[in-house]
Amino acid sequence: MTAGEKRGLIVTAVIFLVAAMLPLVNQGYWLSIGVSIAMYTVLATSWTLFSGPTNYIALSTAAFFGIGMYLVAAFLDWAPFPVLVLMAVVVGAAFAAVIGLATLRISGVYFVIFTLGLTELVRQVVAWMQHVMGTSSGLYVLISMTDPILYWLLLALSAIVFAIGWWIGRSRLGFALRIIGNDEVVAEHSGINTARAKVYLFVISSAFAALTGALVAPRWSYVEPTIAFSPFLSFQVVIMALLGGVHRLWGPLLGVIPFTLLWELISANFPAQTTLVLGVAFLLIVYFIPHGVVGLFEDLMRNRHGRLDSIKGTLLRWRSGNA
Amino acid sequence: MRRRELLTYTAAAALAGSIGLGAANAQDTVKIGVVGPKTGVLASGAAVTHFPSFKLWAHQVNERGGLKLKGGQRKIELIEYDDRSMPGEAIKAVERLASVDKVDYIMGVYATGFNLATAPIFAKYGYPQVTQAAVTDQMDTLTKRYPTLFFVQGSTTQFATSAIQVLKQLKDAGKIGNKVAAVNVADAFGIELANAGRPLFKQAGFELVYDKSYPLGTQDYGPVIKAAKAANPDAFVAWSYPPDTFGLAEQAKIENLPVKAYYSAVATAFPAFEKKYGKSAENILGAGGIQDSPAIRKFYADHKAVTGVDADYWGSPIYHAMTEILTQTFEAVGSMDRQAIIAHLKSHKFKTLIGEVDIRNQKLDKFWTVGQWQNGFFHAVAGVGFDKYAPIQLKTGW
Amino acid sequence: MDIIIIGLLLGGTYALMAMGLQLQYGVARIMNLANGEILVCGAFGAIWFFTASKLSPIYAVLFVVPLAFAANWAIYQWMMLPLVKRAKNQGQLEVDSILATFGLSFFVIGILLAVFGGEFLTYSYLAQPVRIFGEPYALNRIAAFIGSAVLCAGLYAWLHWTRAGLTMRAVSVNPGAAGLVSINVTRASALAFALGGAVTAAGGVLLSMFLTFDASLGVAFTLKALIIVIMGGVNDVRGAIIASFILGLTETAVATLVDPGLTLAAAYILFIVILLVRPEGLFGRRAS
Questions:
Q1: SS3 for B184?
Q2: Is residue C248 part of a domain?
């Protein structure tokens, strides 16, 4: 391990420790935001594990999230919660493996919409199954899960995601991924089993989504297909990750935090026009932060003296794009 | 580094500013928190029933000077947030209302699932949670778990039972046969109603000649109606949501579905339904309903005049009755002390638009369950706890 | 027999939703997530027109289409073009256009909410039965089908028999090469984007005759359009049209013969199967 890497690890550990203290300071509004941030960090970072290096945008987060949630809700009367959470990981991983293996030939925008269709299919099947099995669609998950506990669980989960991401980055798998991301054809010709790499990552990424869904089920208490499998969740995760930057492990985190805070800011101050202002904010972000927050950060770090130049540059580029 | 810090400071300042602004107005007004979907899949229903009801209430109370509390009259100030049809957002919004805006009272949120998701927060801060739009079969479990949670709609089973009872009355009077075609939307409420209804149909002596579900978001109800028609039913029951309520009715009209009783669950009680179908809507049954009276007619007129929206015939009157209960409670207690408010709700009966009501054991004792369009008004033909209902009429064509 | 007719009517409905998006993505390479909102705008335009004037809502097409064309042209020039210019490759453009149109969709929803409110808007028009082979069908759906057929045929004819259409097809096959043969790719893309928006809005007008609309409904339409465009293959408008009809027929067949509850599940299964068998869609071209 290089000195730089050691430093990185220590900084990360400190950040997590500090973050873990949130429930000790606030048990209300800010903690609920913390829970939201932790949840999306897990989802966005694990999404990036797959979609970052491969450049395949997967909109299937909600499918696995919903599967995890439904597993808990459906079998709560027969198994204790922790067992169901573990089951969610296993089922999510298995399902992802099947999907991954089956869809290796699909790429680009076809893959994106494929995952969207998959999510909808899962939702339809779950709703139909409930009708056929005669259980009420809205399933009640009435377990006590206080916000601090959920927060710590999600924080721990995000630490695990980061650990796995870091480990992959240093492993042969990570090396293979970087090549795949640059040029898949070259990677294949170099003897890298691109198929296996892609499937591994898809499975890991989806398993985390399922796990998160299972953990969040008690918080929402009432699980219905439209809400659990909401495509909007998938979009939100993708956008936060893209906003942060998908080429660094800590990129999505830098997307999740500002996005969530911005969301809160707008919701709190523009209650009647929340959606409209959000749209405007979005557009501003897309145009003025083209490389994500990571890109912005790195630009500024690199350009300590030329900060104004880089802002000017962005504006000029936008204006010349309009000429 | 500086730019990012600047952004952070701006954000913090803006948030602080909004809190500060909130605090400045604290003295004179009673702050009432409202959370509901203004956008997203549930927004269309909330736009008719949820938000306008509170606007009407605030308007009417403020017109007469405000709530009469100890220490003078205080006007109502509504603080609304959009939960975008997402439970996670509703949770954050309620938290915000409770711990940042520090409102005096928070209205029940919209839809069953969202009330459940936010229940722990209401309980944590000791706010009473009087729901208006929550229908569930788990009322007993939930009211025990959350002693400050109040339900003011019947249970899912009660709605299904009532609908089937109405059909049974027609059957027993020899006006319709015993064949029923039942369909349901494959989502939360639709599935629950269908599952509750199936055994009840059997018990009431009906034969389900067609029993299928259809996905939420179906664009074409042709196959469903044609298949139901082919089974020769005497009555048609749809445990449906707004888009399908409209879609099914249109298709039934095209097919001239020859049933003498037609029921579609949600949104039949919307004035838009009757406006769209006119004569064809005559004698269609649906969830909700209300007993006609001059006071009720005045309510509808006021609602339209103040909010610009036509109130519906299911949720709106109940919402209004709840706001009447709250006004009476706040003024009886004389302050916004939450414990006192909860104690008062649990120990008094109230005179409201829908009659004298009682929510002392966290459940409303009387509510209408089935309504029928008769002459441009959605009359209540069945319910729980009332003693008089409009007569049930047969559907005589489209 | 009625499965076929209902299926065709439904397919026509779907074609109205998808054709516009196919133009926008196939030629202009913009994954327009605000497509559904454009459709809702068209529908609202027709609803407003009908409630205000009591004339046939189909006349609303006369002002909705030019407005939508102009608005989408403007959107392309001012919002999409900067993204196109700064994108180093197709993948980045896709990402940027997804983000930008996502924001745009929120913006449009906000405007619709402010202007029309959040409630359901609907009206009754041509809700009369027409008997074909003894079975009744809704006149308004038949009218929409005719409208859809006219649009499909018109679009196809334009794309294949006019020079401008040829230009568009060239750009959709390979924008780089098209530029080399002195095709103004930017203008062609702008035209495609604007035309796509106009077609979608026209679709909204026709659909408003029998569907109920509210400000937030756009997402559902976008989703459906995306599925259809991808299923048909992004490069050729025939793909979107054929896919629409296959979908309509399949859904109707499943609803009638199997179980209406599996209607949409079957649609998605079909979509997935087609992609598994032919990863570039029905009429798509393999990316070289």
A1: strand
A2: yes
User: Is residue A287 a part of any domain in this protein?
Assistant: no
- What are C48-104's pLDDT values in tens digits? 998 888 888 888 889 999 999 999 999 999 988 888 888 887 778 888 888 889 899
Is C285 among the domain residues? no
Interface TM-score (ipTM) > 0.90: no
Cα–Cα distance list, B92 to A31, A145, C141 (Å): 10, 16, 43
Chain B segment 370-389 residues within 8 A of C by beta carbon are none
Per DSSP, helices labelled H in chain B are: 2-24, 43-63, 87-95, 112-125, 139-145, 156-172, 188-203, 222-230, 242-255, 271-277, 294-307, 315-333, 338-345
* CATH numbers and ranges of domains, chain B: 2-154+294-367 (3.40.50.2300), 156-292+369-384 (3.40.50.2300)
Q: Which of B183, B220, B304 is most worth mutating to test chain C (most C CB atoms within 10 A of its CB)?
A: B220
- Residue C56, token pair as written in the block: 């046939």
Q: What is the pLDDT, as a whole number, of residue B25?
A: 45
Q: Is residue A280 part of a domain?
A: no
Q: What is the dihedral of CA C172, C178, C183, C189, to 10 degrees?
A: 30
Residue B246: CB atoms within 10 A of its CB come to 26
Contact B104, B30 (CB under 8 A): yes
Interface probe for C, chosen from A110, A111, A322 (most Cβ of C below 10 Å), is A110
Which of C55, C22, C80, C51 shows the shortest CA–CA distance to C203?
A: C22
Q: Which pLDDT tens digit goes with each residue over A214-255?
A: 999 999 888 888 888 988 899 889 988 988 888 888 889 989
- Has residue A323 got a pLDDT over 50? no
Which phi-psi region, left, alpha or beta, contains residue C177 (left: φ > 0; alpha: ψ -120 to 50)?
Answer: alpha
Lowest mean pLDDT among B370-379, C96-105, C119-128: C119-128
Report d(CA B333, CA A123) in Å as an integer: 48
- Give the number of domains in chain A: 1
φ, ψ of residue B111 to 5 degrees: the values are 85, 145
B197 → chain A, closest CA residue: A134
Nearest Cα residue to A89 out of A162, A161, A32, A139: A161
In angstroms, rounded to a whole number, what is the distance separating the alpha carbons of residues A180 and A159? 26
Amino acid at A68: G
**Chain C residues within 8 A of A232 when measuring between CB atoms:** 219
Number of domains in chain C: 1
- What one-character DSSP code corresponds to residue C256? I
Structural domain contains residue A256: no
Token digits for B249? 């009715």
Whether C30 is in a domain gets the answer yes
Judge: C226–A114 Cβ closer than 8 Å, yes or no: no
Q: What is the CATH number of the domain that holds A107?
A: 1.10.3470
Q: Which of C134, C128, C17 is nearest to B251 (CA)?
A: C128
Q: What are phi and psi of C55, to 5 degrees?
A: -85, 165
Residue to mutate among C4, C124, C206, with most B CBs inside 10 A, is C124
Q: What is the DSSP letter of B290?
A: B
Q: Do C118 and B222 touch (CB under 8 A)?
A: no
Closest alpha carbon to A109 in A60, A61, A56 = A56
Range of the domain at C167: 2-277
Q: How far is CA A218 from the centre of its chain?
A: 20
Query: What is the domain extent for residue A77?
Result: 3-250
Look at residue B1 and tell me whether its pLDDT is greater than 80. Answer: no
H or E, element range at B181 = strand B179-185
Selection from B113, B196, B202 nearest residue B157 by Cα? B196
Which of A105, A231, A290 faces C223 most closely, judged by CB atoms?
A231
For residue C232, give how far its alpha carbon lies from the nearest alpha carbon of chain B (Å). 20
SS3 content of chain C, % helix, strand, coil (to 5): 75, 5, 20
